[in-house]
C-alpha cells in the first residue's frame, strides 16, 4: 500500500511516481474487486486528503493534498469500471499501449477473429447504400441494418464472457504462477480487449446508420 503520511511526523507526503492505482488505494492487483470495499477506501482517503484539512498547513502539504486527491479520483474512476480496470492492469503489465487505446493505426486493423463479421457487414452496408440511393423505403434498409447487428451483438456477449473467465484466471494466479502462465493470460486479455473495442466500433457504425448520420466504413473511426 502506498504510504500517504510520514510515519514519524504524520505529515501528508508528496505524490511519488513509483506507485499505481491498486497500491495507492490498498487493493490487490486483481480484476475482480469488492466494489463496496473499494468505495469505502475511496471515501476514507477522500476525507484524509481533503484540502480543507490542510488550509493552514505548509505550501508543500497543501500541494500534496491536492495531488493525492486528484490521483485518488483518477484511481477510483478507473478501478470501479471493469473494462477500464482491465486496460489499466494490462498497461501496468506492459502489454497495453496507446495504439491499443485507439491512438494509432492499430485500431484500424481488423482482428483476425472478426474477419468474417467485418466482411459480411461491409457487404451489407454496400447493399444498404444502394437501397438508400435508389430511394427505397427507410423501413426496408433499417430492418437490414438491425438484422446485421445481431451476430455482432452475439459476438460482444461472447467476448464479455471470455473476459470474465480470463479475469478469474488472472486472479487465481494471485501474483504468482509461472512467467509463461502470466504472459498467456495477459496476452489473451489483450486480444479480447482489442476485439471488444473493434466490435463496439462495428456496432457504432450501424447505430450511426440507423440514426441517419451517414455511412462510415467499419473500423475507420476511433476505438
Name the average pLDDT.
85
Give unreliable regions as ranges: 215-223
Return the structural class. mainly alpha
Distance between the termini: 33 Å
- The overall strand count is 0
> How large a portion of the residues is in β-strands, by DSSP E?
under 5%
Proportion of residues in helical segments: 55-70%
Shape field: elongated
Which value, in Å, is the CA radius of gyration? 23 Å
**Assembly status:** single chain
How many individual helices?
8
Q: Largest beta sheet, briefly? A: none
**Please, how many domains?**
2
Query: What order do the SSEs take from the amino end to the carboxyl end, as H and E?
Result: HHHHHHHH
Describe this structure in words.
With 223 residues, the protein is an all-alpha fold. It has two domains: 21-80, Orthogonal Bundle (Helix Hairpins); 103-210, no CATH class. Helix content is 65%, strand content 0%. It has eight helices and no strands. 25% of the residues are buried. Residues 215-223 have low confidence and may be disordered.
Question: Care to give the gist of this entry?
Answer:
The protein is 65% helix and 0% strand. The chain has 223 residues and is mostly helical.
Amino acid at each position: 500500500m502506498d504510504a500517504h503520511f510520514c510515519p514519524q511526523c504524520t505529515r501528508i507526503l508528496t505524490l511519488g511516481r513509483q506507485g499505481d492505482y491498486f497500491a495507492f488505494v490498498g487493493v490487490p492487483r486483481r480484476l475482480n474487486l469488492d466494489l463496496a470495499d473499494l468505495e469505502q477506501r475511496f471515501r476514507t482517503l477522500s476525507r484524509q486528503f481533503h484540502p480543507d484539512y490542510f488550509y493552514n498547513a505548509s505550501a508543500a502539504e497543501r500541494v500534496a493534498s491536492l495531488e493525492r486527491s486528484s490521483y485518488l479520483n483518477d484511481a477510483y474512476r478507473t478501478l470501479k469500471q471493469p473494462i477500464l480496470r482491465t486496460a489499466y492492469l494490462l498497461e501496468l503489465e506492459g502489454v497495453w499501449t496507446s495504439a491499443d487505446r485507439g491512438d494509432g493505426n492499430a485500431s484500424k486493423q481488423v482482428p483476425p477473429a472478426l474477419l468474417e463479421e467485418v466482411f459480411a457487414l461491409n457487404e451489407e452496408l454496400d447493399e444498404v447504400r444502394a437501397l438508400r440511393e435508389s430511394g427505397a423505403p427507410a423501413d426496408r434498409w433499417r430492418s437490414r441494418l438491425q438484422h446485421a447487428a445481431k451476430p455482432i451483438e452475439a459476438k460482444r456477449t461472447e467476448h464479455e464472457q471470455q473476459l470474465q473467465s480470463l479475469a478469474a484466471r488472472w486472479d487465481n494466479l494471485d501474483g504468482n504462477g509461472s512467467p509463461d502462465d502470466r504472459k498467456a493470460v495477459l496476452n489473451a486479455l489483450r486480444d479480447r480487449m482489442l476485439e471488444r473495442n473493434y466490435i463496439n466500433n462495428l456496432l457504432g457504425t450501424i447505430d450511426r446508420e440507423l440514426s441517419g448520420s451517414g455511412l462510415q466504413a467499419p473500423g475507420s473511426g476511433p476505438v
